[in-house]
Amino acid sequence: MNELLIRGRVLTFLAEPQGIDDTAAWRYIEDGAVFVRGGKVVEIGEHAEVSRHAGPGVAVADHRPHLVLPGLIDTHLHFPQTQAIASYGAQLLEWLNTYIFVEEQKFAEAAHAAAVADRFMDELISNGTTTAVAYCSVHPESVEAYFSAAEARGMRMVGGKVMMDRNAPDALRDTPQQGYDETKRLIEKWHGRGRAHYAISPRFAITSTPEQMEMSQALVAEHPSCYVQTHLSENRDEIAFATSLYPQAKDYTDIYARYGLLNDRMLLGHCIYLSDREVSVLAETGAVGVFCPTSNLFLGSGLFDRDKFDRLGARWSVATDVGAGTSFSMLETMDEAYKVLHLNGQKLTPFNSFYRLTLGNARALGLETHIGSLHAGADADIVVLDSSGKSAMEYRMRTATSLAEELFILQTMGDDRCVAEVYVAGKAMKGKGKADAARQRLLETA
Ligand code: GUN
Ligand code: ZN
Fold first, then answer.
1. pTM beyond cutoff 0.90
2. Which among 21, 101, 113, 122 has most CB atoms closer than 10 A?
3. How far apart are alpha carbons 326 and 333 in whole angstroms?
4. What is the CA 11 to chain-centroid distance, rounded?
């Protein structure tokens, strides 16, 4: 029945920490265990107790002294930009035109899309990310490749075909009708199939005509359980261009509001230069602003104002935004998040960072019953973190005296080398467990 007892120092969140001493917000079990059966968590707790319930003879993955957490969640990135990370020297609009709109044309070819999708999923797993929300290219083939690669690995993934019908090269443009028809077909095929969720994805106001926005509005109304994703207020030139294209809108946010796109399943990438009015609109509608720190620094976009979101009661999440984002690692992402907030005099505690990477981002997606925390009935998407995964970290860890300090070292110095193992629906996907499973399969077929 596919059972496994995962042993280690278990950490999972119950609520958003309200300060460094808010120990009620998380559960930490020094000699802990997670018992997994059929891809789900059956029980978490003290190892002695959980192993007694699991019974004798159960397979054990002993990860001591490492930390065992829910799999990390990335709420915004671009799968066709996997090979365009580190494209030099431009801010948003020039970067899109010079590099990205060239790169994304390659995804007209299904074989290319499939090869990149495989690599993309493997990079996520290698970095401990078990769920992500991605844009595909305008080509339906890219969506097929994306969800097929996720399905082959059993991953819970959100994604969708980008819709763009202006201000992009001919080869990357659809039409309002084509964008609608292709999206509809992809929703019918993929949304709710296994662990797949569809995101209706008008790229941003600059690349969609009012007619395409109306089609997006119809799709959102017809498919209320789908996510919606777009970009908002990332760069000053972008804001000026977008608002010039929709002169009747009060501001950039109002463009999307006028087309009925703002709801609690809407993810808005960046949200750097929003006024109080705009953040209040996000708060009223439940739409989520997505903080993409490595991207915002890399493109010279600006500094996300988290305190404004908190003060006005708006929801926010964190994300890599690969390929403007410079790393698939959510640990490195939180390192940059800490620095960006610091530049604005805002603090991010280590417990709040790890809350965001897990339960916080799961709540932003409304998926907290399935992912983001370790509780009975949750999906067994689990990451095992080694706080001494690099030699400089091992040396630094010798002086660490608290869990908070250890988490801060992990986020400040860590990357994929600190991800010792990843379980997707209870299946080992990265480390020794994956090698053991492969050996077992070979033995069985011999
Ligand atoms: N705005 C519209 N498209 C994109 C994109 O691909 N990346 C980023 N960072 N911003 C965008
Ligand atoms: Zn983006």
1. yes
2. 113
3. 9
4. 20
Nearest CA to ligand 1 atom 9: 324
List, in sequence order, every residue forming a beta bridge with 384; answer none if it has no partner: 68, 421
Summarize pLDDT for 79-111 with one digit per residue, the tens.
Answer: 999 999 999 999 999 999 999 999 999 999 999
Cα 239 to ligand 2 centre (Å): 15
| Shortest-distance atom of ligand 1 to CA 324 | 9
Dump the DSSP string for 239-271.
Answer: HHHHHHH-TTSSSHHHHHHHTT--STTEEEEE-
Q: SS3 string of 365-403?
A: CCCCCCCCCCCCCCECCEEEECCCCCHHHHHHHCCCCCH
Mean pLDDT of the chain: 97
DSSP tally for the chain: helices H, then strands E: 18, 16
430 alpha carbon – ligand 1 mean position (Å): 30
- Which of 82, 92, 201 should be mutated for ligand 1, with most atoms under 8 A from CB? 92
Whole-angstrom Cα distance, residue 222 to residue 225? Answer: 9
Gap between the Cα atoms of 74 and 148, Å rounded: 19
Residues contacting ligand 1 via CB (< 6 Å): 78, 92, 96, 100, 203-204, 231, 234, 295, 321, 324
Q: Which of 22-26, 302-306, 373-377, 431-435 has the lowest mean pLDDT?
A: 431-435
Output the six-digit token pair for 432: 């020794």
Quick one: CA dihedral 394, 395, 398, 400, positive or negative?
negative
**Ligand 1 atom, smallest distance to 325 CA:** 9
Question: Using 50, 70 and 90 to split pLDDT, how confident is the model at 1?
Answer: low
CA of 87 from ligand 2 middle (Å) equals 15
Mutating to test ligand 1, I would choose from 83, 161, 172, 231 the residue with most ligand atoms within 8 A of its C-beta, which is 231
